[in-house]
C-alpha cells in the first residue's frame, strides 16, 4: 500500500525551450598564418565543427573569423559581436599569451581562451604567467574536437545557474589542474555526453521536442583547485550527477598530493551515494582510493577513456539501466527507455530493487536522461523514508505514467510502436499534413493541456480519444503506387470506384503499427476522414466524406483486414459523386484535396453485440434559436443517447444551452416530452465482421429502439420514466412505464458536471479560435457517478460578413414572399430571382418525400451547371434521414439554394430542426434557413403569389418560378428575423 503522503502528487513539467539560452555564436581565432592555414585547409575547423554539431544533433553551430595579428583582432572586435576569442600559439616574438593579454586589456569582459603547444619553454613561461585573467588555457595538438569542447564548456558555465534553477539540469564536476590532462579528457567527456543526449532525446515524441530535449543534457564544470570545487559542490549539491577528480591539485594555493582524497571524503560524508571517480597517474593510489569506496581510473592506461566511460555508464546513469544482483553483481535485466522501465518495474527481484533504490540509482538514471520531474520526485523518497519495496515500485510506476501522460497531452507525437501504449494518445504516421479534423483534434488536445481546470472536477476527466493520424503523404503514396487516379477522376459510379480502391494495397510497413494501436486501445476504432479542405477555417466539408467504424476483435488479422478496408473506403469517398458536386459548389479543385485518415478509439461501452456511449453531442457556441432568457452567445448543445452519427443524420435530439441546463423546451410539457424526445439510437454492430464494405458508411451501424438500451442498463442518469397512471414523467429509472431520454440527472441534478464542462469547452474553444465554434463530444457516465468527457472535433462556425443595417421586422408583409421570425443566418443577398417550392395542399402526404428529394436533386444540378442560385421552400425538416419528418435530401442535392425555408402545414407539423451537419454548411456558405408556421402566426409564405406566376419548370411535386427583378433576402442573425422581399 502506498502511504497517503505519496498517493497524490503533481509533477511540474520542465520546458526545455528556456534552457541553454546563452550561446556562443561568433568565435574569433587569432593565429599565425601557418596555424591559420592548418586550421583552414588541413583542419577545416568550421566545416568539421559544423559536421560535428549536425552529427550530434546540436543546433546553432558557431561561425569562425580568423585573423593573424592583434591589430586585425581589434578591428574585428570593434565591428563585430564576438562571444569568444581563441588565441593560438604564435610565432617567436608574438606568442599566444601576449596576444591574449593585449586583447583582454582592450576588452576585459570577453571570454578568452589560450591554446598552446606544450614544450619545455612554454611550461617554464607559464610558471610566471598570470593565467587568472583567461577563462582557460588548453593544450593544442591540432585536434578540432577540442574546439567543440571549449565552446560547450563555456556555454555550460554561462547557463549553469539559470538552467539548474529553471529545469533542474544536472552537472558533472571535473576537478583537474593539469592543462595537458584536461585538454584530453574534456573532448572525450563531451563526446560521450553529447552522444548520450542524442540517445535519450529519442524519449521525445517528435523531432522538434527531441532537439529541445538535448538542451537538458548534463553540464560539465571544470574546477582547478580545492576551494573552487567545494564552492561549486556547496552551491549545486542537489544537482550533482557525479565528481571526477585528480589526486593532486592546489589547496589554499599550495599543491597537495592528497587534495583529491580530501575533496572526495568531504563530499562523501555529505552524500554517501554520489558517484565519485578518482583519476591518477600513480598506480599506488588505487588501493588507497578503492579502500575508501571510490572508483579509480588510471591516467596511464591506454584504455583510460573507455574505463571512464564504463564507470559513467555504471554509476552516473548514462547508457542503459542495468539491474544487478547485489551479491554477484551479475546483470539481471537491462532497461533502454522509460517505457521499458514502466513495463518491467514489477518483474525485478526484491533484493536487486532494494540495492538500486537505496543507492538512489533510479533517480540518477532519470536525471541523466533529462527526465527531471520524475527524478526530482523519486530523489525525495529515499529508502530511509519509506521501507517498503512494493510501495516504491508502485510510486515509480505511477510517476512514470503521470509523466508520460503529461508529456503526451497537447503534442503531436511521431508514431513509434516501441513507445505507443495505453498511456499515449495522439501520434502521426507519415510526414504530410494532419488534415482538417486532425489539426482540430491536435488543437483540442492543446486547449485541454493549457487549461488544467478541465480536470478539476472530482470523478470527471476531459480528454481526446486515443488517436493516430495517417498523414496525407500515405494517401499520395497509396494513390500513386496503385495507379488509382485514372479511375478516381473518371465518371465511374461510387460502387465501381470503391471496388477499385478495395482491390488496391496499403503499404505493408503499416501492419506492425496497426497491431500496436489495437493493443493500446482495446476498443472499436473509428476511421474518419481528415482532408485538407475539411473543417479548414472557412470551408467546412463536414459530413461529406465517409467515416467507418470497426469492432474490436480478438483475431487481430481479421481486425487488420477490416481496418484496411475502412481506410480504403475513406480514401475512395474523396472521389464519390457527392464529393465532386461539393467541390464544384465550393469552387475547389479535386486535385488539391488530399486525405489524411484518423484512427480513433470509439467512445462507448460494450454491451451484448453492440457498442455505444451514454451521451453524444454537438455543442455550438452561437445559438440561433435562443428561448426565454437565453442569448445567442450562450451557445447550444444537442444531446443524444448512442453514437453521434444519429445527430449528424438529423435524428431527434435534446437541445439545451449549457448555461441554462434547467431550461429544456422539449421536456417542459408532458405532451412535448413524449412526442419530441429520442425514441431510437445508433450503436456499432460488434458482431458484423468481414470485408463487405459498402459506399454507405453506416452499413454496420444498428438503428435501435430506446427499449434496447434499457435492456443494456445503459440509461442510468440519462432517462426519466413516464408514469401513465399519474400522467407525469419522473426523473430516474423505475419499473414499468416508457423511458424518456431527458438527461435530467446530468442536466438538472448535477450527477456529472457536463453543463460546466461544456461551458468551458465553448469558452476556451471560441477564445482559442477567435470565432464561434462547433464541438463534437461523447461521454461515458458510470454507475458510481464518475465519467469521462471526450472532445472529438472542433471547427469554426463561419459567420458571413455582410452587414445588415436595416430593421427586417419593419418591412411590410405584402412586400414579402416569405417572412420568418425564426430564421438562421445573417446578411443580405440580392442576386437571386428564382423560387423552387414543393406543391402542397391540404392533401399533402409525406410518403412522396423521397420522390420529391430526387426531383429537387435534378433541379439543383441544373442550377449548379449554370452557376445560379434559388430560394427553396418545402414542408417539414429538410435533410432529415427519416422521410416522414421531412424531405430526405443531402446537402449536395440542395447546395445551390441561397435560402431554405421549412413550412409547417395544417396537417403536417414537424418541429424545426437544428444541429445537423447541414447547419455547419449553412453557416459557412452564408445560406439562410427560415422556419414558417403561419397557423401559429410565426411568419408567412405567400404561396398563392407564386401559384399565380408562370412556372419556368414543373415536375410532379415541385414548381420553379422566376421574378423579373432579383429578390432581396434579408437575415438578422441576432434577432432571428428573416425575409425574402420582392425586388422594387
Structure description:
The protein is of the alpha/beta class. It is built from 32 helices and 43 strands. Strands 34, 35, 36, 37, 38, 39, 40, 41, 42 and 43 form a 10-stranded mixed beta sheet that branches. Strands 15-16-18-21-19-20 form a 6-stranded mixed beta sheet. α6 (144-167) packs across α7 (179-200). The longest helix is centred in the first third of the chain and has 24 residues, at 144-167. The protein is elongated, with a radius of gyration of 37 Å. The termini are far apart. 47% of the residues are buried. Residues 537-541 have low confidence and may be disordered.
Task: Looking at this protein, list some descriptive labels.
984 residues, alpha/beta, ten-stranded mixed β-sheet, six-stranded mixed β-sheet, 32 helices, 35% helix
In short:
With 984 residues, this protein is α/β, with parallel strands linked by helices. Helix content is 35%, strand content 23%.
Helix content, binned percent: 25-40%
The assigned structural class equals: alpha/beta
**Largest sheet entry:** 10 strands, mixed
Number of helices: 32
Distance between the termini: 83 Å
Rg:
37 Å
Query: Mean pLDDT, nearest integer?
Result: 82
What gross morphology would you assign?
Answer: elongated
Number of strands: 43
Instruction: State the low-pLDDT regions, or none.
Output: 537-541
Strand % is 15-25%
Amino acid at each position: 500500500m502506498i502511504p497517503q503522503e505519496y498517493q497524490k502528487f503533481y509533477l511540474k513539467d520542465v520546458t526545455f525551450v528556456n534552457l541553454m539560452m546563452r550561446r556562443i555564436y561568433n568565435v574569433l581565432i587569432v593565429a599565425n598564418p601557418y596555424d591559420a592555414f592548418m586550421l583552414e585547409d588541413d583542419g577545416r575547423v568550421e566545416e568539421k565543427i559544423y559536421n560535428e554539431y549536425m552529427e550530434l544533433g546540436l543546433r546553432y553551430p558557431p561561425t569562425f573569423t580568423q585573423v593573424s595579428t592583434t591589430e586585425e583582432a581589434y578591428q574585428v572586435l570593434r565591428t563585430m559581436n564576438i562571444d569568444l576569442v581563441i588565441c593560438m600559439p604564435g610565432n617567436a616574438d608574438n606568442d599566444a599569451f601576449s596576444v591574449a593579454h593585449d586583447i583582454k586589456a582592450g576588452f576585459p569582459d570577453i571570454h578568452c581562451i589560450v591554446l598552446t603547444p606544450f614544450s619545455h619553454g612554454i611550461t617554464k613561461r607559464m610558471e610566471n604567467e598570470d593565467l587568472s585573467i583567461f577563462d582557460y588555457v588548453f593544450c593544442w595538438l591540432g585536434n578540432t574536437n577540442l574546439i567543440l569542447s571549449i565552446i560547450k564548456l563555456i556555454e555550460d558555465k554561462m547557463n549553469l545557474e539559470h538552467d539548474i534553477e529553471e529545469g533542474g539540469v544536472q552537472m558533472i564536476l571535473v576537478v583537474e589542474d593539469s592543462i595537458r590532462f584536461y585538454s584530453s579528457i574534456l573532448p572525450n567527456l563531451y563526446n560521450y555526453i553529447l552522444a548520450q543526449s542524442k540517445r535519450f532525446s529519442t524519449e521525445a515524441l517528435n523531432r522538434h521536442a527531441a532537439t529541445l530535449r538535448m538542451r537538458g543534457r548534463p553540464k560539465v564544470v571544470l574546477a582547478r583547485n580545492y576551494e573552487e570545487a567545494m564552492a561549486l559542490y556547496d552551491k549545486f549539491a542537489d544537482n550533482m550527477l557525479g565528481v571526477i577528480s585528480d589526486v593532486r591539485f592546489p589547496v589554499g594555493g599550495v599543491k597537495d598530493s592528497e587534495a583529491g582524497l580530501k575533496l572526495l571524503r568531504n563530499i562523501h560524508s555529505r552524500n554517501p551515494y554520489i558517484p565519485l571517480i578518482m583519476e591518477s597517474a600513480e598506480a599506488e593510489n588505487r588501493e588507497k582510493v578503492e579502500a575508501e569506496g571510490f572508483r579509480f581510473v588510471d591516467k596511464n592506461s591506454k584504455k583510460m577513456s573507455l574505463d571512464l566511460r564504463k564507470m559513467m555508464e555504471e554509476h552516473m546513469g548514462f547508457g542503459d539501466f542495468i539491474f544487478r544482483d547485489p551479491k554477484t553483481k551479475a546483470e539481471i535485466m537491462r532497461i533502454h527507455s522509460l517505457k521499458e522501465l514502466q513495463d518491467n518495474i514489477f518483474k525485478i527481484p526484491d533484493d536487486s530493487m532494494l540495492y538500486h533504490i537505496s543507492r538512489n540509482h533510479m533517480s540518477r538514471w532519470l536525471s541523466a536522461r533529462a527526465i527531471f520531474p520524475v527524478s526530482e520526485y523519486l530523489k525525495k523518497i529515499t529508502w530511509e523514508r519509506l521501507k517498503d519495496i512494493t510501495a516504491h515500485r508502485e510510486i515509480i510506476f505511477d510517476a512514470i505514467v503521470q509523466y508520460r501522460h503529461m508529456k503526451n497531452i497537447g503534442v503531436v507525437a511521431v508514431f513509434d510502436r516501441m513507445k505507443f501504449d495505453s498511456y499515449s494518445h495522439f501520434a502521426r504516421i507519415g510526414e504530410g499534413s494532419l488534415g482538417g479534423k486532425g489539426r482540430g483534434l491536435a488543437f483540442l488536445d492543446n486547449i485541454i493541456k493549457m487549461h488544467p481546470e478541465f480536470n478539476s472536477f472530482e470523478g470527471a476527466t476531459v480528454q481526446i480519444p486515443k488517436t493516430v493520424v495517417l498523414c496525407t503523404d500515405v494517401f499520395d503514396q497509396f494513390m500513386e503506387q496503385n495507379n488509382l487516379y485514372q479511375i478516381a477522376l473518371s465518371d465511374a459510379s461510387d460502387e465501381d470506384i470503391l471496388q477499385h480502391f478495395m482491390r488496391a494495397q496499403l503499404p505493408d510497413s503499416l501492419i506492425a503499427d496497426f497491431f500496436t494501436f489495437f493493443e493500446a486501445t482495446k476498443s472499436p476504432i473509428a476511421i474518419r476522414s481528415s482532408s485538407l479542405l475539411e473543417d479548414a477555417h472557412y470551408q467546412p466539408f463536414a459530413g461529406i466524406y465517409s467515416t467507418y467504424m470497426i469492432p474490436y476483435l480478438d483475431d487481430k488479422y481479421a481486425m487488420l483486414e477490416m481496418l484496411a478496408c475502412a481506410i480504403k473506403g475513406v480514401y475512395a469517398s474523396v472521389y464519390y459523386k457527392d464529393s465532386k458536386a461539393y467541390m464544384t459548389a465550393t469552387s475547389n479543385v479535386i486535385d488539391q484535396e488530399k486525405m489524411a485518415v484518423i484512427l480513433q478509439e470509439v467512445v462507448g461501452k460494450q454491451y451484448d453485440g453492440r457498442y455505444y456511449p451514454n451521451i453524444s453531442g454537438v455543442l455550438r457556441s452561437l445559438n440561433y434559436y435562443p428561448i426565454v432568457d437565453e442569448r445567442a452567445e450562450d451557445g447550444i448543445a444537442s444531446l443524444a443517447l448512442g453514437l453521434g452519427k444519429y445527430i449528424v443524420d438529423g435524428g431527434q435530439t435534446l437541445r439545451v444551452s449549457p448555461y441554462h441546463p434547467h431550461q429544456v423546451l422539449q421536456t417542459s410539457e408532458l405532451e412535448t416530452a413524449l412526442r419530441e424526445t429520442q425514441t431510437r439510437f445508433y450503436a456499432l454492430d460488434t458482431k458484423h465482421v468481414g470485408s463487405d464494405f459498402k459506399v454507405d458508411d453506416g452499413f454496420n451501424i444498428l438503428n435501435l429502439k430506446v427499449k434496447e438500451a434499457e435492456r443494456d442498463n445503459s440509461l442510468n442518469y440519462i432517462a426519466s420514466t413516464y408514469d401513465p397512471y399519474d400522467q407525469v414523467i419522473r426523473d430516474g429509472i423505475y419499473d414499468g412505464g416508457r423511458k424518456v431520454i431527458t438527461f435530467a440527472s446530468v442536466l438538472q441534478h448535477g450527477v456529472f458536471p457536463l453543463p460546466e464542462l461544456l461551458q468551458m469547452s465553448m469558452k476556451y474553444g471560441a477564445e482559442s479560435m477567435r470565432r464561434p465554434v462547433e464541438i463534437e463530444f461523447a461521454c461515458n457516465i458510470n454507475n458510481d457517478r464518475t465519467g469521462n468527457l471526450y472532445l472529438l472535433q472542433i471547427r469554426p462556425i463561419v459567420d458571413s460578413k455582410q452587414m445588415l443595417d436595416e430593421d427586417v421586422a419593419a418591412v411590410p408583409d405584402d412586400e414579402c414572399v416569405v417572412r420568418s421570425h425564426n430564421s438562421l443566418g445573417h446578411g443580405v443577398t440580392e442576386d437571386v430571382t428564382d423560387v423552387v417550392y414543393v406543391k402542397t395542399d391540404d392533401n399533402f402526404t409525406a410518403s412522396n418525400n423521397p420522390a420529391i428529394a430526387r426531383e429537387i436533386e435534378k433541379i439543383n444540378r441544373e442550377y449548379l451547371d449554370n452557376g445560379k442560385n434559388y430560394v427553396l421552400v418545402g414542408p417539414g425538416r429538410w435533410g432529415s434521414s427519416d422521410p416522414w419528418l421531412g424531405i430526405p435530401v443531402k446537402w449536395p442535392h440542395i447546395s445551390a439554394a441561397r435560402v431554405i425555408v421549412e413550412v409547417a402545414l395544417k396537417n403536417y407539423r414537424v418541429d424545426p430542426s437544428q444541429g445537423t451537419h447541414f447547419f455547419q454548411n449553412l453557416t459557412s456558405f452564408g445560406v439562410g434557413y427560415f422556419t414558417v408556421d403561419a397557423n401559429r402566426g410565426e411568419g408567412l409564405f405567400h404561396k398563392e403569389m407564386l401559384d399565380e406566376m408562370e412556372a419556368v419548370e414543373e415536375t410532379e411535386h415541385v414548381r420553379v418560378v422566376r421574378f423579373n427583378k432579383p429578390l432581396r433576402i434579408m437575415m438578422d442573425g441576432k434577432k432571428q428575423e428573416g425575409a425574402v422581399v420582392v425586388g422594387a
